[in-house]
Write a structure and sequence with these properties.
Blueprint: E1 12-15, E2 18-22, E3 31-35, H1 42-53, H2 55-60, E4 64-69, H3 73-83, E5 89-91, H4 96-100, E6 104-109, E7 112-117, E8 120-124, E9 130-134, H5 142-151
Parallel strand pairs: 3-4, 4-5
Antiparallel strand pairs: 1-2, 3-8, 6-7, 8-9
Active site: 44 (cysteine sulfenic acid (-soh) intermediate)
EC number: 1.11.1.24
Domain Thioredoxin: 2-153
Length: 153
C-alpha cells in the first residue's frame, strides 16, 4: 500500500484518442489518478462525469486528471463519447499499474470472491510523491474532496 510522501510509481499507458501517457512526463504538474473498476457501470459513470464536470477547476490549478481501468482504449472511447466525458482515460489492460498502486484487490459481491480494481484516487504532487490517497471511494462528494486537496497543494 502506498503512503503519503512515497514516490508515485511511474508508468506509461495508452489513452483513448491520444498518445500514450507517461506519469513522470507530467511533472511539474500535480496529477490526479482515479482508478475505477469498469466503464459504463453506475458508480464509475457518476465518478467520471463528476471529474469531467470539475475538469476546468482542476485545470485552473494546473492539475492533470486521468482515469485508469483495465478496459481497452476502444471501450474507453465509447464510454467517453456516450457520456460526454472530458477526462482522459488510460488503459491498464495488463494490470501492472493497478498492482503498483495497490488497487488490484480481492473483492466480494453476491457471495462470490473475485479480483478487481478497488475504486481509489491518488493525488500526486509536483515533486512526484503521493500527496493524498483515497481508498474505497464512495462517489458522493468525492470529486469535491479531491479538488479541495488539490487547492491545498
Amino acid at each position: 500500500m502506498l503512503k503519503i510522501t512515497d514516490p508515485a510509481p511511474d508508468f506509461t499507458l495508452p489513452q483513448d484518442g491520444g498518445a500514450p501517457v507517461t506519469l513522470s512526463a507530467q511533472r511539474p504538474a500535480p496529477v490526479v489518478l482515479f482508478f475505477y473498476p469498469r466503464d459504463d457501470t453506475s458508480g464509475c459513470t457518476k465518478e467520471a462525469i463528476g471529474f469531467s464536470d470539475h475538469a476546468a477547476a482542476f485545470e485552473a490549478l494546473g492539475v492533470k486528471l486521468f482515469g485508469i481501468s483495465k478496459d481497452t482504449v476502444e471501450k474507453h472511447a465509447k464510454f467517453r463519447a456516450k457520456h460526454g466525458l472530458t477526462v482522459p482515460l488510460l488503459s491498464d489492460a495488463e494490470g501492472t499499474t493497478c498492482e503498483d498502486y495497490g488497487v488490484w484487490k480481492e473483492k466480494k459481491m453476491y457471495g462470490k470472491t473475485f479480483m478487481g480494481i478497488e475504486r481509489t484516487t491518488v493525488l500526486i504532487g509536483a515533486d512526484g510523491t503521493i500527496a493524498a490517497h483515497w481508498p474505497k471511494v464512495k462517489v458522493a462528494g468525492h470529486v469535491e474532496a479531491v479538488l479541495d486537496a488539490a487547492k491545498a497543494l
